[in-house]
Amino acid sequence: MRRRAKILRFVLTAVLLFMVGRLGWFHVMEAEEVLAREEARRLQEASLAPVRGALLDRSGRPLAVSIPQRNVVASPFHMEARNFARVAESLAPLLGQDAFELERLLRENPDSQYLVLARGVDLATAEEIAGLMLPGISLEETSQRVYPQGEAANQIIGYLDADGVGVYGLEAQYEEALRGRPGFVRAELTYDNAPILGTVRSNIPAEDGYTVISTIDIYLQRTFEEALDEVIAREDARRALAIAMDVHTGEILALAMRPGADLSDRSSWVKEDGTLDVERLTNWAVTPLPPGSSFKTVTTAIALEEGLIDLTTLIPDSGQIEIDGWTITNWDRVVHVEPQMRTIAQLLQTSSNVGLIHVGQRIPHETFQRYLQAFGFTEPTGLDFPHEAAANGLTNWEEKRAIDWANIYIGQHLEVTPVQMVRAAAVFANGGKLVRPHLVSEIRDANGETVWKAPTEPLRTVISEQTAAEVRQLMVSVIEEAYTQAKVPGYTAGGKTGTAQKYEGGREKERGLGDFLGFAPATEPRVAMFVLIDEPRPPGYGGTIAAPLFAKLMPEVLRALGVPPDDPEEVAEPQVEPAGEKAQEPARVAVPDARFLPADWALQRLRDAGLQPKVSGEGKVVTAQKPAPGAEAAPGSEVELTLGPLGGETVTVPDFSGLTLADAGRLSAELGLLLKQGGGAGFVVEQSPAPGTAVPSGSVITVRLSTARP
């Protein structure tokens, strides 16, 4: 027994010595490795989401912005069941939910560590929830994409998918710039992925998305869209479009399509039968459509550039022509016994199909094809927009028959995009150079520094300056001599009407297209415009439905750019009512409150209301206005603004109503005030303190938002 005891003691001693030695080895030789493994078990990584960048118009007005919000997340696993009722009762009034339903949700998911109770909670409400310090309740950072302009420019802005990724429009085109870069933190995390203080080992903050500046002027965009709505209603049209572009830079100033949809209201995206209404969401200015007679300007330019005709050349026009067994007539269907000899100006003024076919037949097919390529019709324009198409019908040249060529010369048997057409007008207007249309002018980082700027140099020279000047002269004569309804008040202009047939299943449809292509001012062109009405009630001629719209919209664009009138005698004089007759008064508008706003904000507010500001005094802030806020005035009336200095220690609170959160934040910062969101999303509908209140500089202004603009 004693021997066995000695052996047992020896074995136990050896084991103990081995364990002590092994422990010492770990402690001395492998301590760092052991600690690293243990820390790796404890430390975790949590992603930090960036805020998506803003999309602004050319003047800085928001088209799409992301508003910081919070999701309310519960972890019933880390709560005690006895706390479920108390937590539910505390959260219910803040979340606008039923306390019983919240408690039921918690009790039905006792093992869950991530249970979303509410999404998109505003920051003010989130602060109240955080202050309650409820067990098992955490706040998850998120944001909501809002579109402050409603339906305006929706087919251009585009939209995001359920994961917040741009899938259409500028949101998709500039996804990489807008989305930002996520960051991460490596630390010991709580159940709600929040880092525990003092355990952070590495922290890379998220980089918010860049700000994208569009070339679109949202004021012009709205003006265009309202005018298109009127035309659609009046002409019972399927849809309508208008584009305005700077002929020298390629900047798209307005690209309006109607009908549209509200990006914030997905119910407006669908038809009555529940299917997606694609035309309300997609940019059909980059899809091919038949241009009709407005394309005759291209045929004319090629013939002039090649010296095949000049402005005095007489061209026969008999009213009809037979080609390959087909008969083509002029739009008026008048057939002359003897061919009429006409100049190219007369042919364009009468929009003669027969005369322009004779012009086109003088151009060798290879030459015509080469110029169409030079004009950019055989490929997409390079517009910074996804899904852009090139023209249809400009391939398989060797298979085309004489009748096919004849139709191409007059804008039939081919389809081109509206963007391609407005770019062709720019070639005539700017002296023969091809520009690259674009919808974004620059991209800025978080510090406001420009990191990218759109190139504006011409791509190539298509026709000579002399030919461009001759085409401009011809297009001016079309308006001056034939289509006076396209005359632009205060400005000279050139243009060409277009009417095209549409086909379905190989048969001509009852309704076609009416369009107008033009530029202004004719003396020194700045803007090209293309107006198109799709499937108006017959006859739907471009000269009767699209030309007047060109005359209405062009001066709006030129005035917005500050282009002075070059033909002031053409401005319509006010009509004097005969004695005894009462003039019908135009609809009056309510004068907005511009008091206490910085001067530039006040001017924009009045212009958006259709009024004309008149400024007097010196200073940075409006101290008085006449007429008073709320008074009714005729559109275009003057509103007198008196400027004064911005107070140093005190600030008079302006009216924030109707502004987005982003705009309200910029305005408050400019005045030396702080802004607090008091709930909701969209536009400011309430504020505290009230407008006109004098407060110390640095005071907090609380605003409540609503998706319904006041």
Characterization of this structure:
The protein has about 700 residues and is an alpha+beta fold. Helices cover about 30% and strands about 25% of the residues. Strand 11 and strand 12 form a beta hairpin. The protein is globular. About 0% of the residues have low confidence.
Q: Estimate the helix proportion, in percent.
A: 25-40%
Mean pLDDT: 87
Low-pLDDT residue intervals, each spanning 5 or more residues: 572-584
Indicate the structural class: alpha+beta
- Main beta sheet, described? 7 strands, mixed
How much beta, percentage-wise?
15-25%
Write down the Rg. 34 Å
Q: Would you report the number of β strands? A: 35
Query: What is the multimeric organization of the chains shown?
Result: single chain
